[in-house]
């Protein structure tokens, strides 16, 4: 999921030639190879959700090879992050109970 | 007042992928599973369609990824030809078959799908036999499903 404040939010760059997108989230950026997602419309500043394989390049740079992607403009990001926090707590407790 | 614990057997239990993969089969019946000691048979799950294996007039097998696990789903498309359904009324089968074809069209790579169905085991792996599909367009659908599952887990499924 990419996000952040007004200038650091969502899609930062997109190259039509290479199909490489750069997304930002809380100041961190990630390159996403979108060559398999040609039907997706890339607009700078929009928020996208990608699922794929993370490849680490020889120079230690990570590129997400996206298998799926979708525009999620309008998402409530505060609620999204709170739900992830709740999920981590829930998973930690649930998995601990499952092993004891 | 009836003090028996709430039965989850005949309702669609909202589960995240990692919880679904923690259930264990009930020895006496292959269509019933244990979730934290409670018997369940039906689930409601939601996730992004990350694979799709379509065999026309036979089945659509697909996976949903909800960020905690991938879940294999099977949507049967052979209602009009399989002897398994022969005891059902032809008119009913036609309706079910038409719905299944609509669901198969809806399930496309990258879409977010809410699926209801029966849990089953196939070659040792869990899968959901689909009875109902709804394609979510609300960008908050995954978040809200996640919170629903956590809330129900804390209040009901894992108490």
Automatic annotation (TrEMBL), chain A:
GO cellular component labels? CST complex
Gene Ontology MF terms? single-stranded DNA binding; telomerase inhibitor activity; telomeric DNA binding
Q: Which InterPro entries match?
A: NA-bd_OB-fold, Ten1_animal_plant
Write out the GO biological process terms: negative regulation of telomere maintenance via telomerase
Tell me any Pfam family this protein matches: Ten1_2
The domain of life for this entry's organism is: Eukaryota
Per its UniProt record, what PANTHER family does this chain match? CST COMPLEX SUBUNIT TEN1
Q: What is this protein called?
A: CST complex subunit TEN1
Write down the species.
Gossypium anomalum
The beginning of the lineage is:
Eukaryota, Viridiplantae, Streptophyta, Embryophyta, Tracheophyta
Automatic annotation (TrEMBL), chain B:
The GO molecular function terms of this record are:
DNA binding
Keyword list, A-Z: Chromosome, DNA-binding, Nucleus, Telomere
Q: Does the keyword DNA-binding apply?
A: yes
Q: Chief localization class?
A: nucleus
Where does the OB domain lie?
A: 43-134
The membrane-spanning stretches of this chain are none
Superkingdom classification of source: Eukaryota
Q: Know the name of this protein? A: CST complex subunit STN1
What organism is the protein native to?
Gossypium anomalum
């Amino acid at each position: 999921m990419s996000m952040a404040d007004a200038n650091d939010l969502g899609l930062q760059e997109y190259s039509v030639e290479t199909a490489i997108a750069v997304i930002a989230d809380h100041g961190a950026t990630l390159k996403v190879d979108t060559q398999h997602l040609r039907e997706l419309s890339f607009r700078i500043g929009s928020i996208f959700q990608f699922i794929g394989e993370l490849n680490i390049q020889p120079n230690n740079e990570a590129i997400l090879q996206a298998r799926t992607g979708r525009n999620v403009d309008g998402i409530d990001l505060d609620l999204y992050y709170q739900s992830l926090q709740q999920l981590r707590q829930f998973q930690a407790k649930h998995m601990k109970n499952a092993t004891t | 007042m009836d003090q028996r614990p709430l039965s989850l057997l005949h309702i669609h239990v909202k589960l995240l992928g990692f919880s679904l993969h923690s259930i264990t089969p009930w020895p006496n019946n292959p269509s019933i599973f244990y979730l934290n000691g409670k018997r369940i048979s039906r689930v409601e799950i939601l996730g992004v369609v990350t694979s799709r294996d379509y065999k026309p007039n036979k089945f659509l097998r697909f996976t949903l990824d909800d960020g905690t696990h991938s879940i294999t789903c099977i949507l049967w498309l052979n209602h009009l030809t399989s002897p398994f359904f022969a005891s059902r009324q032809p008119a009913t089968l036609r309706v079910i078959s038409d719905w299944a074809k609509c669901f198969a069209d809806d399930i496309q790579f990258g879409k977010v799908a809410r699926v209801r169905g029966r849990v089953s085991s196939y070659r040792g792996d869990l899968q959901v036999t689909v009875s109902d599909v709804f394609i979510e367009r609300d960008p908050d659908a995954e978040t809200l499903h996640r919170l629903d599952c956590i809330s129900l887990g804390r209040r009901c499924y894992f108490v």
